[in-house]
Amino acid sequence: MLVNMNDLLQPAKRGGYGVGFFNAVNMEMARAVIETAEELHSPVMVGTAEILLPAMELRHVAEYLIPMAKEAAVPVCVHYDHGLTFDRCMEALRLGFTSVMYDCSTADYRENIAKVADMVKICHAMGVTVEGELGHVGDNDGDGKLLNPGDYYTDPDLAEDYVRNTGIDSLAVAVGNAHGDYKFTPKLDFERIRIIAKKTELPLVLHGGSGLSDDDFRTAIQNGIHKINIFTDIDKAGKNGIEKGLAAGAKTMMELMPYELEAMKTVVAEKLRLFGSVNRA
Length: 281
Known about the structure:
The chain is of the alpha/beta class.
């Protein structure tokens, strides 16, 4: 059943659990996410991000994800994550995505508000939900690496103002999290999460979920995180599954695919159980 983000995150906020969002840049990833959610009777979010479009173009992602979501036995939100440009977000809307993140977090604060508020007006008129980001969630490697992450943490008072002036449906926060593999054990600012959640009264979003400890996830959810983004963990699981298949003597892609799918489904199942969304559909 194809739904928007509010259909999943508002019940999660009331029920005190988290909803997993998984990037799915091919059919095997999409199957791993949606089939596992169906098996565990869990709501789920699935989609892609602008930075991942070189792996699979947006229109092709929509071609497999939208029909799969519509046919799913559980609620599935198809979300365009980290949309960096207005045009790409509009393309996602035209293709049938039911939720978008318009990431203007590197822009000036007032510019961030203005751009995201305009996106909210368009999306809400179409029944589509919007995620914004305040502060900036950087990367562990490469050009996006932040030398002093604390300088980019989400300010709780600004968050309250940002939510009021944009009308967003969920807020991505920077609280010690980062994209990609963590080189050092991250230390999330749970008190900051709690205060932001109280001030904004919105479901909060944790990016950079791969690599955090189980206790990190549980505590973050208890304090107001209700959407958790996962990609690196299932991406690496798929690779490990293929390596296992090769070691077992598989010689074709047809023979390798079951190993890849099983490995990714195992990770998805672990996350859905950890987030507390099992049997919530």
